[in-house]
Specification:
With 142 residues, the protein is an alpha+beta fold. It has three helices and eight strands; from the N terminus they run βαβββαβαβββ. It has one domain: 2,3-Dihydroxybiphenyl 1,2-Dioxygenase, domain 1 (Roll).
Length: 142
Amino acid sequence: MDGPLAALAVDHVGIAAEGPATALTALLGGEDPVAGREMPSGVAVGRFGPRNGLELVWEAEPGSPVESFLARRGPGLHHVALRVDAPIEDLRAQLAADGVRLIGDGIERSSDERKCFFVHPAATGGVLVEIVEGASPGAGDE
């Protein structure tokens, strides 16, 4: 595959839920997702599972983006996060110059404090894509 996203790896999968206690805990042998962290967008997130590869996303404040997502689609797949090791600012600028629809005005911080930005689902065939820079601190060895 050619293009700016060719060298990326899957970092984690985001799952929208009504709250932190979900059916996923049964699949994880009763393990509760990590405590949620409130993000500036009004959502709460908790990373858990093998190599922190799952991220539970739920509403922390009324009117958050996940509230409208849950109203439209219900609980389930929210986003796929791809990891890049190159400077994320350059990748975002390249995608914007190529006319790819992005969300927000710049680089944000992910749930584990890495630089990130989001690609709008309209540009990816219906899936919200988060681009994160570098490996997750809790991911462990590959």
